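Table S7 (text form). Paired inputs.
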Amino acid sequence: MSGQPEKEPDVECLEVTDATPSRSLKIDELKLGQAVFEKVVFDSDRLSHFAKVANDRAPVHNDPRFARTVGFEKPIIQGLALSTRFSRLIGMYLPGERAVLEKIELKYRAPVFAGSALIYQCKVVRVMRPLNVVQLGLSITVDGREHVSGQCQCVLR
């Protein structure tokens, strides 16, 4: 597996990096299956910044011994720390700068550990043109296995 999400024929699947300029798609530019993805590694520096903002000092996130006592091989990344990267993908790339998040639902299927290579993907699953609304499927995979899945809905302004 290449680490890149599977691409549907004739539908855009854009990989974004820190250097990718943002965009502002209109509702008529969105197509079913259209997707963006980004490769991210949560290192100790990123996790430290999130822990300070959230003030989350739960030992399952930073104490290896405690994490093992509750069934994890090592400390796990906070679920909301993981979800923060979706904000970037939605608000800058798909649909982009016109998007206002209305709702989001995520399911954490497997723990994610610091240093893991994560693939974030947002994919158009429904376009409601008269309402200027788009629904996106969301996922985070590690080594081809889905660890987080979900969906969100955005209105385009």
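Next pair, protein 2 of 2.
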Amino acid sequence: MNCLLRLSVVVAMLGVFSSCQQEEGSDAMDAVMADSTATTESVEAVPAIPVVTLNYTQRKGKRLYDHYCAICHGDSGQGDGFNAYNLDPKPKDMTQKSYLNAVTDQWLVEVISQGGGGVKRSVLMPSYENTLDRSEIEAIVSYLRTLAQTE
């Protein structure tokens, strides 16, 4: 019985302590909220980052790109993938509009299909003609075109 009484007193004290802290915390939170509204009024508008909406083929290409290409070319296509550190020459930055505008879809299909060595480029890029079918490679090319749109 004595233990039960002690436990009740401890629980009651904790309840009083936590309610005091909540009241103090709410005053502090009100002060922070008032301060943050004052600072947001003085901040200049930041231009929005363009968002590219992907169609079905481009989403399929992104899934394949993420699985096969991102390890070297990077998640965002900038040539900074996990394995890029080990490669010389470094993987192509696929976000460069100037590069993607200069090459045709057919060229990109050939590079992906035959690998770098097959088109007289870096032999470090593997061939995917035995791994991916033509429509999958074309989906990757379609996705690659979207990477340069956000530049």
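Residues 20-25 have pLDDT under 50 and may be disordered.
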